[in-house]
Amino acid sequence: METNQETIFQDKVDHEIKIEPKDWMPEKYRQTLIRQISQHAHSEIVGMLPEGNWITRAPSLRRKAILIAKVQDEAGHGLYLYSAAETLGISRDEMYDQLHTGKAKYSSIFNYPTLTWADIGAIGWLVDGAAILNQIPLCRTSFGPYARAMVRVCKEESFHQRQGFELLLTLSQGTDAQKQMCQDAINRWWWPSIMMFGPNDDASPHTAQSMKWKIKRFTNDELRQKFIDMIAEQVKVLNMRLPDADLKWNEERKHYDFGKINWEEFWQVVGGNGPCNKQRLDARKKAWADGAWVREAATAYAEKKASLNPSKGGTSETV
Amino acid sequence: MNVSNIKNSQVSPSEGFREAFTLHLADNALIMGHRNSEWCGHGPILEQDIAISNIALDLIGQSRNFYQYAAQLFNQSTNQPINLATEDSLAYLRDVRDFKNCLLVEQPNADWAQSILKQFFFSTYQYYLYQQLQNNKDEQLKAIAAKALKEVTYHVRWSSEWVIRLGDGTEESKKRSLKALDELWMFTGELFEPAFYETTMNIDFVLLKEGWTKKIRSVFEEATIDIPVENKWHQTGGKIGDHTEHLGFILAEMQFLQRAYPNSEW
Ligand SMILES: [Fe+2]
Ligand SMILES: [Fe+2]
Question: For residues A196 and A94, is the Cβ–Cβ distance under 8 A?
Answer without folding.
Answer: no
